[in-house]
């Protein structure tokens, strides 16, 4: 299996009649089944503490393909559920994997910081349980909602874990803001009257922090005064969408209000992320290129006249009128396309109801002909082997575009609408 995962051959099959790229659904099913039921390749060892996230990609990937309940048994699904509950922390929330669990009988107030609940893992644990059809009756719901405000910093952002002396540790960027708002959304539901005694997060401070992360070019950064980035943009808009879904009376932020400068500049920035710069042609040319005489030009400035220096400049490629066939997305200005950014950008546009602005056909061509892999799954970019993250996000982007063989997806929860329907059957959502 490790040899198969190391292959770099890409699928370029086309339908001989329609001459269109083919979504190899059966191969993707096999890929996600391998990741779920067998050992992952050795390269995943460094991600062992993120096992909850890997489990989400594998389980939700099969659900997105409509095969989770066909390709797994009831006993297997129950086993996955039990593993997730084994990751639940007594004081609320979920750990990222079982490796930090040193036993309930040894746990004290003094040492519980050694095995803390993790904000991202808590969100993904809840979503996996929902996908698997669990009723969340064993989730320490009230404890989790009491723990969540403790993870919010004074500036409105969220941390990752609680360290010794209840100190907020870990990153403070918009990823944790999104997962904090998402956990609140999943567990509070419409049952606000029964939660009046439980302190809520400071919604206004969270909104203000997200708004402060929007940059001069319209995109959203990991924090104020940082570079705009598609992944953090998705997390910022996702957090605001989670908050808005629970409060019809809350003041609408400019980032979600069409016609405002914040909204329109963000839409323009997202649309500008679609690019035909894939990195494949440039990389192929590197090995065959002749030595560039212009590299030594700075040393020659003092030895030649200005007119002579023009002849030393490298020749620029001739502009071509060849039509663009592939156009993926990048996450920052002047970067190559990357499979996961097809998700981060299209999902954000979907939440903003502006998905129609992307070139869906060329995004599909890019994903299916450039990064779809022969063994199933998707690679990060042209020539890369598949991995769980890019495989899942590649499929979700295609699902937004109505790809046959995929379930529809809720862009903010990043799970199937079937799972969302199950969520809304829980008691605190009725």
Total discrete domains: 1
Number of strands: 6
Please provide the ordered H/E string of secondary-structure elements.
HHHHHHHEEHHHHEHHHEHHHEEH
CATH topology: Glycosyltransferase
What Rg do the Cα atoms give?
24 Å
Q: Indicate the low-confidence ranges by residue numbers.
A: 1-18, 282-287
Organism: Aspergillus nanangensis
Cofactor: Zn(2+)
Pfam families: Prenyltrans
Keywords: Metal-binding, Prenyltransferase, Repeat, Transferase, Zinc
Q: Which key terms come to mind for this protein?
A:
430 residues, mainly alpha, Glycosyltransferase, two-stranded antiparallel sheet, 6 strands, 3% strand, disordered N terminus
Characterise this structure.
The chain has 430 residues and is mostly helical. It has a single domain, classed as Alpha/alpha barrel (Glycosyltransferase), CATH 1.50.10. Helices cover 43% and strands 3% of the residues. The chain has a two-stranded antiparallel sheet with strand order 1-2. A two-stranded antiparallel ribbon has the order 3-4. The longest helix has 17 residues, at 230-246. The protein is globular. The relative contact order is 0.13. It holds the Pfam family Prenyltrans. Its cofactor is Zn(2+). Residues 23-414 form the Prenyltransferase alpha-alpha toroid domain. GO terms for molecular function: CAAX-protein geranylgeranyltransferase activity; metal ion binding.
Produce the secondary structure layout.
Elements: H1 2-6, H2 25-37, H3 51-64, H4 68-71, H5 74-86, H6 119-131, H7 141-147, E1 161-162, E2 168-169, H8 174-188, H9 203-212, H10 230-246, H11 261-271, E3 274-275, H12 280-286, H13 297-300, H14 306-310, E4 328-329, H15 339-351, H16 360-371, H17 388-400, E5 409-410, E6 415-416, H18 417-423
Antiparallel strand pairs: 1-2, 3-4, 5-6
Helix pairs in contact: 2-3, 3-6, 3-17, 6-8, 7-8, 8-10, 9-10, 10-15, 15-17
């Amino acid at each position: 299996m490790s040899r198969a995962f190391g292959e770099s051959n890409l699928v370029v099959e086309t339908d001989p009649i329609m001459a269109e790229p083919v979504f190899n659904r059966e191969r993707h099913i096999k890929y996600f089944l391998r990741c779920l039921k067998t050992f992952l390749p050795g390269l995943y060892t460094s991600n062992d503490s993120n096992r909850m996230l890997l489990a989400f990609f594998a389980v939700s990937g099969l659900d997105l393909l409509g095969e989770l309940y066909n390709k797994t048994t009831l006993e297997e699904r129950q086993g996955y559920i039990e593993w997730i509950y084994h990751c639940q922390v007594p004081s609320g929330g979920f750990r990222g994997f079982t490796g930090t669990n040193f036993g309930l009988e040894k746990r004290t107030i003094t040492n519980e910081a050694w095995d803390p609940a993790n904000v991202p893992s808590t969100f993904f644990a809840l979503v996996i349980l929902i996908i698997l059809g669990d009723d969340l009756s064993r989730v320490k719901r009230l404890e989790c909602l009491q723990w969540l405000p403790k993870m919010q910093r004074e500036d409105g952002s969220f941390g990752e874990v609680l360290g010794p002396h209840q100190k907020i540790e870990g990153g403070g960027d918009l990823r944790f803001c999104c997962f904090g708002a998402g956990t609140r959304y999943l567990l509070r539901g419409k049952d606000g009257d029964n939660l009046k005694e439980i302190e809520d997060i400071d919604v206004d401070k969270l909104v203000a922090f997200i708004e402060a992360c929007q940059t001069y070019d319209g995109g959203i950064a990991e924090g104020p005064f940082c570079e705009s980035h598609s992944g953090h943009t998705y997390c910022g808009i996702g957090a605001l969408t989670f908050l808005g879904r629970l409060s019809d009376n809350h003041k609408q932020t400019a980032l979600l209000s069409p016609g405002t400068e914040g909204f329109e500049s963000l839409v323009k920035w997202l649309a500008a992320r679609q690019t035909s710069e894939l990195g494949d042609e440039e990389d192929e040319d590197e090995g065959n290129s002749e030595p560039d005489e212009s590299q030594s030009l700075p040393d020659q400035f003092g030895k030649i006249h200005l007119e002579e220096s023009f002849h030393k400049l490298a020749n620029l490629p001739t502009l071509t009128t060849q039509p663009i066939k592939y156009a993926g997305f990048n996450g920052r200005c002047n970067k190559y396309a990357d499979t996961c950014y097809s998700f981060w950008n299209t999902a954000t546009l979907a939440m903003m109801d502006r998905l129609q602005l992307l070139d869906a056909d060329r995004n599909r061509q890019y994903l299916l002909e450039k990064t779809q892999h022969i063994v199933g799954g998707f690679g990060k970019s042209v020539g890369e082997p598949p991995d769980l993250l890019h495989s899942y996000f590649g499929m979700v982007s295609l699902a937004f575009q109505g790809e046959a063989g995929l379930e529809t997806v809720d862009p903010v929860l990043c799970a199937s609408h079937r799972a969302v329907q199950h969520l809304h059957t829980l008691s605190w959502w009725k």
